[in-house]
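job 3f2a | input accepted
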Amino acid sequence: MYNMKWKLLIVLFFLTINLSAQHTLIDQKWELVSFKGKPVVDFGKMGKTPFIQFTAKDMCVNGTGGCNNFMGSYSLKGNHEISFSKMASTLMACINMSLEADLLASFEKVMTYSIENNQLILFDAGKSALVVYQLPATQDNSKNSLDWAGDYKGTLPCADCTGIETWVRLLKNNTYEVRSKYSGKSDSTYISKGSFYWTKDGGSVILKNLHGSSTMYLVGENKLIMLDQAGNRISGMQSEKYILQKSQQKITHKK
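job 3f2a | predicted structure (255 res):
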């Protein structure tokens, strides 16, 4: 009876270890650090930062080698064993294609992995480190530290009217709505809707409309600051007028 209990505890112990390892592996974006002991300087010349990520729901893996996106399946076993299968990639042409091809081919040789100091290390059968990934450093920025979703309003400068009454609504699903009224020129309200995306540093949003044009705002504490087309603060005597303040109440519009 006691032997059965001990055996059950041992099985649960190793199962817990495996699930814990899987939890730290999945749903993370791992960026490439080195390949076969060499830094990834040449990979960066292809245009994208190489990365890999694992999902738990369907045991799928995806990422990029720097030029082409790849996808496939993976499986986990005890003792940090991992294997990749059904790997495929897009067929774009870039410089240093041999490097990327070598990287993608190396997944077939991966047998085990370890996670140490926020680094994911993939080993071959001889326990040599083939590929090393790491979690990107997280820094506080407007995207991840501010309560930015909501309504903003203000009056922007206008060359041929008294001011552009502007309302901007940003939603958590990365969609927006803008309503503009040219005071002293027209009683019409112009409505624009679409999707927005964040700049790489997580500090500004770019609102793209259906016609292909875009507007950029720096996201601050309870305010949006309109930027020029190059992404710079607008200077001059009217610079303060390019700031939209966040409303504490939802803005409603008459239809």
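job 3f2a | The chain has a mean pLDDT of 83.
job 3f2a | closed
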